[in-house]
Amino acid sequence: MGKKQFIALADKIRANNATGPVTAYFTYSQILVLADFFAAQNPAFDRSRWLGYIVGTNGPSGGALHIP
After folding, report:
1. CB neighbours of 56 closer than 8 A, spacing ≥ 6?
2. Contact between 48 and 54 (Cβ < 8 Å)
3. Count of domains for the chain
4. What is the pLDDT of residues 34-44, one digit of tens each?
5. Do 41 and 31 contact (CB within 8 A), yes or no?
6. CA 43 to CA 47: how far, in whole Å?
7. What is the pLDDT of residues 42-60, one digit of tens each?
């Protein structure tokens, strides 16, 4: 997987956790398992950047969020 796919998956997780029923939320431990797997598969994967994007502390490329 590449950067676009990692961002697309993070977008889906964020959308699901924002609008889906509580019983369908991805837990933080499930997200950590995914991050560990991605890091093992792709040495360029930035685990902290991806996790930060999911929890909303940074934008998809790791920079500051652009809030209109």
Report:
1. 14, 65
2. no
3. 1
4. 999 999 999 99
5. no
6. 10
7. 999 999 899 999 988 888 8
DSSP labels for 2-51? -HHHHHHHHHHHHHHHHHS-GGGPPPHHHHHHHHHHHHHH-TT--HHHHH
CA gap 8, 6 in Å, rounded: 5
State whether residue 53 is helix, strand or coil: helix
Farthest CA pair distance, the chain: 36
- Asked if residue 1 lies in contact with residue 42, where contact means CB atoms within 8 angstroms, the answer is yes
Rounded to two decimals, what is the model's pTM? 0.80
What residue numbers bound the domain in which 13 lies?
Answer: 3-55
Q: Strand, coil or helix: what is 52?
A: helix
Q: What is the pLDDT of residue 64?
A: 67
